[in-house]
Amino acid sequence: MRIATWNVERLKHQKALAEIISLCDKAKADILVLTETDCQVSPDYRYCFSTPAIDEGRPVHYKQTENRVSIFTNYPCIRRYSTFDKYTSLCVELETEWGSLLVYGTIAGIYGNRHPSFALDLSSQVADIKRLSQEADGFCLCGDLNCSFADNYYFTQSGRKILMESFAQNDLVLLTEAQPECIDHIALTRGFGNQKKVRVEEWNQDKLLSDHKGIVVTV
Q1: CA-based angle 179:15:89, to the nearest 5?
Q2: 80-84: long-range contacts (C-beta < 8 A, 24 or more apart)?
Q3: Going by C-beta distance under 8 Å and a sequence separation of 6 or more, which residues neighbour residue 211?
Q4: pLDDT per position as a tens digit, 111-167
Q5: What letters, b where the CB count within 10 A reaches 16 and e where it falls short, cover 180-219?
Q6: Do the beta carbons of residue 193 and residue 219 sit within 8 Å?
C-alpha cells in the first residue's frame, strides 16, 4: 500500500498546474491526501472526497475553487465521519486489501504553529484521533502537521509532545518521523499491513511548485 500527502500551497504556482497533477499521478499512491488544495488539482483517481469550499465569512480570503483537504483513492468508501471542523479535517473509512482503514486528512494550524489557533486545532484533532481511531481495523493520520520530528526545522516543543503522546496512546506509528525538514506526515495503526517493510520517498524537494515537499510511504 502506498499513502501520500502534499500541501500544494493554495495552488500559488498555478502556471505549473499540469506538472503538479503529473507529480501527484507519478506518486502512484493508493491514498493521496492533498492539503491547502484546489479543485483544479485533479489527479487520476476513482474517488475524491473533499472538505467544503471556504465561504466568504472565513478570516482568510479563499478563491471559490479552493478547499483545505482532499482525499483521493481507488478504494471504495464505507462511510464518512464528522470531524471537529468540516473545513480543516476530513475523515473517510476505506475498504482495503488489509481491512477497513479510516483515513483522517488534516491541517494542524492553518496559520502555522506560532499562531494561538494552533494549540486549539491540535487539541481538537487529538480528540478526533482518540474518538475515531478505534472505529476501523486501521487508522491513518495524514496531512500537514506543521511540526518536524527529525530536526529543528519547524516545530514547537509543546506541539511535538502532544502529537507524540497522541500517537503512543492510540497505538499509531509515525512512518515519516525520520524525514528531515518535513512537516507533512503519515501515521498508521501499529500492525496494520506489513510495517516491517516501510519505504519513504519525497518529491518537490526544491520547493519550486509549493513551499512543502510531497511525501509517500510504501508499507
Answers
A1: 50
A2: 80/49, 81/132, 81/135, 83/128, 84/124, 84/125, 84/127, 84/128
A3: 7, 9, 12
A4: 899 999 899 999 999 999 999 999 999 999 999 999 999 999 999 999 999 999 999
A5: eebbbbbbbbeebbeeeeeeeebbbeeeebbebbbbbbbb
A6: yes
| 151: its cell numbers | 530536526
- pTM for the model: 0.96
Query: Percent of the chain beyond pLDDT 70?
Result: 98
Instruction: Label residue 206 left, alpha or beta by phi (over 0 means left) and psi (-120 to 50 means alpha).
Output: alpha
User: Does residue 6 contact residue 184 with C-beta atoms inside 8 Å?
Assistant: yes
Structural domains of the chain, count: 1
Rg value, the chain, Cα: 16
Within 116-156, where are the H helices? Answer: 117-132
- Name the residue range of residue 123's domain: 2-218
Residues 6+ apart with CB under 8 A from 61: none
The C-alpha cell that represents 110 in the structure block: 492553518
Helices (H) and strands (E) in the chain, counts: 3, 12
Amino acid at 116: P
Q: Are 81 and 48 in contact (CB under 8 A)?
A: no
Farthest CA pair distance, the chain: 47
Report the CATH number that the domain containing residue 22 is assigned in CATH: 3.60.10.10
